[in-house]
Amino acid sequence: MIRERHEHGFGPFYTPESRILILGSFPSVKSREASFFYGHPQNRFWKVISAVFNRSCPETFEEKRVFLSENLIALYDVIESCSIIGSQDSTIEDVEPADLHQILDNSMVKKGIFVNGGKAYELYMRFIFKEIGIEPIKLPSTSPANAAYSLGRLIEIWKEKISVPE
Known about the structure:
Elements: E1 4-7, E2 20-24, H1 29-34, H2 45-52, H3 61-70, E3 73-77, E4 79-84, E5 93-97, H4 101-105, E6 113-116, H5 118-127, H6 129-132, E7 137-139, H7 151-161
Parallel strand pairs: 2-3, 2-6, 6-7
Antiparallel strand pairs: 1-4, 4-5
Helix pairs in contact: 2-7
């Protein structure tokens, strides 16, 4: 496969009431095709986050938007554009980081930043932390490539770490 330059392709999701921000690294091919977060059917994000909030798992685009709004969650990615092979985080180069000010200035996210996986954490610390000054909480990746964590273990860890600030 060939490394290609890609733009994020769709913006952040947040509402003025959002209190936590969950950041991935960069949207997968399936997510870019769907123009929404965690679009790959094998990614466990929606199963994990619905279990964390003790809700049924949203299926449709609209159900996902409602779920995020009702649970005060903003979603985005650390990278706005990069060169990447397919969806492989390990191949990311030439990073243009996302500007999180739009979310932070127009929501209630003041702390409560979580990163979905080690690559998202690494990139956040490298490109965003100095500007934003908010240390993120690293969560194990919900990616199907993260076979070291069962669904149950992911849910357990995410439940321990995620809380919605007042």
